[in-house]
Amino acid sequence: MIELIKKLCESFGPSGRENTVRSLIIEELKKNGVDFTIDTLGNLIVTKESKESQDAKKILIAAHMDEIGLMVTFIDEDGFLRFTNIGGLLKNTLPGRKVVFENGTVGIIGQEKIKNTKELVLDKLYIDIGAQSHEEAKSKVKIGDMAVFLAPFSREGNRVMAKSLDNRIGCAVVLEALKKLLSFSLPNTVYFVFTVQEEVGLRGARPVAYRLKPDFGLAIDVTRVGDTPEPEFNTNVALGKGPTVKIKDSSVICHPQVTNLMIKVAENKNIPYQPEVLERGGTDAGAIHLVREGIPSGALSIPCRYIHTPAEMVDLDDVKNSVSFLSELLKVSW
Amino acid sequence: MLITELSQIPGVSGDESRVRDFIKEKLSSWGIEHYTDSLGNLFALKEGKKNGSESGLMLSAHMDEVGLLVSSVEKSGHLRFYKVGGVDERALITKPVLVGPNDVMGVIGAKAIHLQKKEERKKPLKIENLCIDIGAKDKDDAERVVKVGDYVSFYSEAGLSGNIVKGKALDNRAGCAALLEILQRDYPCSFTAVFTVQEEVGLRGAIVAAYRIKPRIALVLETTGAIDIPEAKNQDHSTSLGAGPAFTVKDQSIIAHPRVLERLIEVAERQKRTYQFRRYGGSSTDAGAISLAGSGTAAGVISTPCRYIHAPVSMLLKEDWQNLVEITDAFIRSVYEKGLEI
Which residues are CB-neighbours of B198 under 8 A, at least 6 positions away? Predict the structure, then answer.
């Protein structure tokens, strides 16, 4: 699984340009003989029909493939690039970072002279791709091209560090659970969906939920933690203490039917879990639960430090427990 | 000219009926079947010349413009107002306006400059400091011709001078005019053209319009800000006049579908038409709502660059608009000839 996580994290996939990540996941699906479809916006859908009952409930599992990134808006006379954000970039993490474009072009984020950190806005930043002229820059990159952080994957003990663990770790968890469940006959019909464009406003999940008309929705994503020195977020969630059962974030108040079932399964199967109340942030569950006549939804999150920076961190026990948690959840009738 | 005719018509978000009536009349005279939905969106069903050639294509342009709404009438007969859509408050003072369905003439007034205190002169006037003066003697006099809830539109004569078009509401009457221009031409395939309502207050018409017709592909004809003025650095221009219509890669509401964007570039290149990319990553268009309707739509945006949008008078170049029409025309034909695999 480590190799899979590394491959997923190191691949290129800002919102709207998820094709590389999708291809990687498709490769894994094909290796396991799993069929799939892709919808208009690019969501990747795997359907596992229940053969146990005519009126089996339908559950949509959503893990987003996209990551935050940058988009070129202007190439200046000297070949420096100006950019806008794709999703929630944290300005203070940008200067000095390397970024990479889909075609492999690498650049550094540079910063104009500023008097104090309050003046640090995107307009003051640029990307330097080493071009020595406007023409040279234009031959490598054009307006509208997107870039993501260039950051290697590392492992220290039980923790892994990488860019875009948000939410490639979620994709990895769903893929592993899917593989585990292949030989099982399930009481529910399950749609495993790898969604697009979550980081720009939960956009992929909505149309795919509309198409599939599930009875329940469950997002698999990362969540913030409060276990670091003077943490920025007021939460008890900590790395290594298990996956979370989301109660609320800014996009959704999770349906009690879903959260109660999650807690019951975790307790029955002795899977460590943490309740999660996220002050700021949303997940695909926020979009799914408002589709059509309303779809009771929840979320299982993997605790993650330094979200939306070029170096995020998760705990491998949490990852393993998330896989077991999701698999066990899908083995019970909803 | 269609753009200038459309520009003159008052049609603030929620009050698009006069724009709609103008367009309906054109459609009827050209024999194009059309209908209006409950929110006021106007759907024109363009028949293709080849039978059974439904393209799954939706073209759209919003009819509404930003403006004001009367919120109360003062004892003195002056009207207080709210903004409808993104209006630059600082641009309001001394502008002529039309109030209500009977187009009562008014002027946005404020304390005269020589009566303002030193501090007051330094700050731009806020909406609370402004009122609409319709020359009424008092409240009763005012209420004989206007009422709370009346829409207020900018009064600004549209003009055409060589390549330059000026007028109010070019955002997005230029898009409506382009769509009408397209509808007069013959195409092998059928498609639906939608003139939407309430874009400026949150893409509201497009949400239900796209849900109704469930298009496979959508192209939104828009007007976008050009900030190519001496005060702004080149990198902040977003778009420039004369550089051709702008294709959106990403704004606040959408990341344009790559297949639609690629096809726009392809037909523009083939036709040797000038085009540019919109460089500003913010603000929204109907395409955002359309792309998420139903099971999802592959959507893109093509815009005429326009200076001073959302102000009482704006300016664009006819050649940019003409190139928008021709690229859109080529896009429709290309979708028919080559299909468009999503």
Answer: B13, B14, B16, B39, B40, B62, B64, B204, B205
What are the structure tokens assigned to B309, written together?
């949008």
Q: What is the DSSP letter of B270?
A: H
Residue A318 has pLDDT above 90, yes or no: yes
Q: Is the C-alpha dihedral spanning A141, A142, A145, A149 positive or negative?
A: positive
Q: Is residue B216 a contact partner of residue B295, using CB atoms and an 8 Å limit?
A: no
Nearest by CB to residue B296, choosing from A40, A73, A82, is A40
Q: Is pLDDT at B31 greater than 80 in this prediction? A: yes
Nearest alpha-carbon partner for B324 in B177, B159, B163: B177
Question: Which of chain A's residues have a Cβ under 8 Å away from the Cβ of B292?
Answer: 203, 206-207
Which chain B residue lies closest to A201 (C-alpha atoms)? B253
The pLDDT, as a whole number, for residue A333 is 94
Cβ distance A73 to B280 less than 8 Å, yes or no, reads yes
From the options 3.40.50.720, 3.40.630.10, 3.60.15.10, 3.40.50.300, give the CATH code of B2-65+168-338: 3.40.630.10
pLDDT of residue B66: 97
Model pLDDT, residue B111: 73
Query: Do the strands A297-303 and A216-223 form a parallel or antiparallel pair, or are they unpaired?
Result: parallel
Measured between beta carbons, the chain A residues lying within 8 angstroms of B297 are 40
Question: Which of A74, A76, A141 is the best substitution to test chain B (most B C-beta atoms within 10 A)?
Answer: A74
* φ, ψ of residue B268 in degrees (nearest 5): -65, -45
Examine the pLDDT at B107 and tell me if it is beyond 80. yes
Quick one: A185 and A129 in the same domain? no
pLDDT at A255: 97
State residue B273's pLDDT score. Answer: 97
The listed CATH number (2.40.30.40, 3.30.70.920, 3.40.190.10, 3.40.50.300) that belongs to domain B67-154: 2.40.30.40
- What is the rounded average pLDDT of the residues A85-105? 96
pTM for the structure as a whole? 0.92
Q: Can you give the pLDDT at residue A284?
A: 97
Exposed / middle / buried, residue A184 (Cβ in 10 Å: 0-12, 13-18, 19+): exposed
The residue-averaged pLDDT of B162-185 equals: 97
CATH number of the domain enclosing A76: 2.40.30.40
Confidence of residue B289 (pLDDT cuts 50, 70, 90): very high
Separation between Cα atoms, residue A230 and residue A221, nearest integer Å: 24
CB < 8 Å to B342, chain A? 40
pLDDT higher than threshold 90 for residue B189: yes
Does residue A189 contact residue A25 with C-beta atoms inside 8 Å?
A: no
Alpha-carbon gap, residue B103 to B99, rounded angstroms? 5
Number of structural domains chain A divides into: 2
Mean pLDDT across A192-215: 97
Residues of chain B with CATH 2.40.30.40: 67-154
Across chain A, mean pLDDT equals 96
B298, A40: Cβ pair inside 8 Å? yes
